[in-house]
Amino acid sequence: MTSDIAEVWTFLADVRRRRRRARRGRIAYALYLAALLVAIYGGPLVVRAVHSVQSAPTATTDTHRLVDALPAGLAAVWLFLLLGLIRQATWRGPILVSAPDADWMLPTPLPRSRVVGTRLSASLLTGTVVAAGAGLLGALILHGYGVARIGRLWLPMVVAAILVVALGLSAGALVERFDSATSIVF
């Protein structure tokens, strides 16, 4: 009896190990493709952004229109992104769990912190990195239009993007936790 249990645990550990290895391979392949696409399609943009940062920004006729529309435009973009994150949480939640976890672990009365907590932390970390990149890209674009120097733009843009993603994921977790919050979103 004890050897059967040990064999089952060994088998399950082996299955988990193979699935983790396959998942790491899929993630590595996706990251490779993303890096390749960024290098191919984004290479000229990166070169243009580096040249833009090295040279002083010059104001054009579009700069004045951009400065006038910037507060309302950025507020609309941030609110749209926040609403998108919250709406996504109503049908999917702020994180993804594997099918076995969703089918077997989540319906049981066991603590979910080990299953959900690590994935929520990973989601926050990934969102923070992506938001920081988007904020830096926004700062480079605004610098290229001559709105201000990159030194004055990058920190506010990165912090704003990170705060929007953190707020969106937190609100998504609240929507998932409390059913009454779902009615506010719709």
Determine the number of helices (DSSP H or I, runs of at least 4 residues).
Answer: 6
Poorly predicted spans? none
Largest sheet geometry:
none
Distance between the termini: 54 Å
The helix content is over 70%
Write down the overall mean pLDDT. 76
Order of helices and strands: HHHHHH
Class from helix and strand fractions: mainly alpha
Count of DSSP strands: 0
Radius of gyration (Å): 22 Å
In what range is the share of β-strand residues?
under 5%
Shape: elongated
Describe the structure.
With 186 residues, the chain is mainly α. It is built from six helices and no strands. Helix 4 (113-144) runs antiparallel to helix 5 (150-177). It starts with a helix and ends with a helix. The mean pLDDT is 76.
Tell me briefly what this model is.
Helix content is 84%, strand content 0%. By secondary structure, it is mainly alpha-helical.
Task: Please tag this protein with its features.
single chain; 186 residues; mainly alpha; 6 helices
What does the secondary structure layout of this molecule look like, with pairings?
Blueprint: H1 2-54, H2 61-91, H3 99-105, H4 113-144, H5 150-177, H6 180-185
